[in-house]
Amino acid sequence: MSVLVLVLAGPLQSWGTVARHTLRDTRPHPTKSGVTGMIAAALGTARTDTTRLRELAACSFAVRTDQPGTRIKDFHTTHTRDGKSLPLSDRYYLSDAVFTAALAGPGPLIETMYTALQFPHYALSLGRRACPPSRPPQFAVEHDSHDPAAVLETVPWQAAAWFQEAHPAHRMTIHHDTAATDPAARIHHDHPLDFTPGARRHGPRAVASRTLPPATPGPPDFFDALDTLNDPDGLL
Which of 222, 94, 214, 97 has the alpha carbon at shortest distance from 163? Predict the structure, then answer.
């Protein structure tokens, strides 16, 4: 068994579980369905390929909130190609958020996923097509590991340098798969069963959470370092 570690960062993210009528909501952290969908896109998996989806969804999942971001609402208008107005909708996003996610599965599958994320078949997105990542999501593969939550306890804090400086006492929370009998379990309906357009299905997933001690600042992100290089006096 191995664990794939991903860093999910971008100007906007949206990890919805409610998408009915004119409401497109987002959870405060990435869903298993959304992250699995991103990996399936990298692999070039057809939306109707439920066999491959089952293999990906069998991986155990955990996600850590490194930088929670800000929840914002977009009043969305759109039209058909012939100019006809479509129903108005409220769409919610997380602005300027950073998460670290981990998936545990068979070593060969994890290596295949890691390689695919370096050379994705389809464009990657953070929950919605309009939300591209600001950095390549693949971070590391931990070999001979089977507990994604335990791995996330050891990964350095991935928040932007400005956030680490402004929030030195930030405590990261890990949300991870657990047994349905766990007294701390909550049920999330984000286990992907079928991505077929018009027939999407999700099942329940037992999730528990734990909060870590205050984080230790990690190494500066490449883009933060570039900003410092271009503006050493912090005038911009």
Answer: 97
Contact 176, 208 (CB under 8 A): yes
Cβ proximity of 14 and 33 under 8 Å: no
- Torsion angles phi and psi, residue 111, rounded to 5: -65, -40
Express each pLDDT in 216-228 by its tens digit. 776 555 555 555 4
pLDDT for the residue 230: 56
pTM of the model: 0.86
pLDDT score for 19: 59
The CATH number of 2-230 is which of 3.50.50.60, 3.30.230.40, 3.30.70.2660, 3.20.20.370? 3.30.70.2660
The Cα 93–Cα 37 span in angstroms is 18
How sure is the predictor about 101, in pLDDT bands with cuts at 50, 70 and 90?
very high
Structure-derived torsion over alpha carbons of residues 220, 133, 68, 33, reported in degrees to the nearest 10: -130
pLDDT band at 86 (very low <50, low <70, confident <90, very high): low
Which sequence spans correspond to the domains of the chain? 2-230
How far is residue 182's CA from residue 177's CA, in Å, rounded to a whole number?
Answer: 10
Helix or strand or coil: residue 45?
Answer: coil
C-beta contacts of 52-57 below 8 A and 24+ residues apart: 53/192, 53/193, 53/194, 53/195, 55/109, 56/109, 56/113, 56/192, 57/32, 57/191, 57/192, 57/193
d(CA 67, CA 173): 10
Nearest-angstrom CA–CA distance, 199 and 210: 34
Q: Give the pLDDT confidence of 126-175 residue by residue, as tens digits.
A: 999 989 999 999 999 999 999 999 999 999 999 999 999 999 999 999 99
